[in-house]
Amino acid sequence: MKNRAGPITFGTIQKCFVLKPANRDKMMENQTAGTDSRQNTEIAALRRDLSFSYRLQVPQHAGSEVLILLHGSAADETTLMPLAMAAAPRAKLVAVRGRIIQDGDLRWFRRVTPTEFDQASIRTEAHAFAHFIDELVARHNLEPAHIAFIGYSNGANLVTSTMLLTPGVLRRAVLLRAMPVLHHVPDTDLSGAHVLMITGANDVTYAPFAPALAGLLRAHHANVDEHTVASGHEFGAVDGNIISGWLDRRRSVAAT
Asked: Using CA atoms, how far apart are residues 91 and 88, in angstroms rounded to an integer?
C-alpha cells in the first residue's frame, strides 16, 4: 500500500543544496508547508548517546520502515528530513550527523579536492558508521530488513563506501548526487542489495562519475536503479517522488 496521496511538494522551496545552520529553520518551515501533518511538529532533539550524533523522528502512526539519512557536506542532519518525511510519511527517521569538521563544515570524511578524498578517513568513518548502525539497531530495537539509507553527496559517498567496506550492513540505499571515492575496492559481494541512484543532469562535478559508480556497484552484484533528473547538484521534489515510488516498489517486493 502506498504511503502518500500524490506528488511531493515542498511549499515555495523546490530545491535545496548545502545548508548552513542559520538558514535551516526557515528552510524546514517552507519545505514542509502543505505536506503531512507530522511535519508541522517540532524536529526531534539531537541525541548524543551513541558513537554518532543523530535525531530520531517518529511519526504519530509510524510503521516498521526506518530511513537513515546522511546529509551532504556543509549542511547538517536536518537537511534531508523534509524530503524523507514527504517520501515516506509513516517511516521513522534517523538523521545522522557526520563527525568530521573540515574548514568549519560538517562532513563524513575528509576531502583533498572536490573529487579526491582522504582514503584513510573514508575507511575509518565507514567502519565507524557500520558500528553505529549496530548500536542504533540494538538501542532502538530496529529491524534491519526494514531499514533504508538515504545519502546526499558526501553522505551518499559514505553510504557506498560502507556498503563496499562492510558488506551486509547496508542492504537498501538511495544515493543522491554520488560518485565513487575509494581507490581500492575489496572483492565485496553485494548480492541482494538494492540501490537507487539519482543524478543531476547538470551536476558538472559529480554527474560525469555516476556511470562509473553504477558500474562498480553492478560489478559487485548490487541491483541498481538509475535515474537522471533535470537539475544540478541540488535536490528537490522530483527526487522525492522518485524515492517514494522506489520505496513503494521495495515494500511490494518484500510483502510477496
From this structure: 5
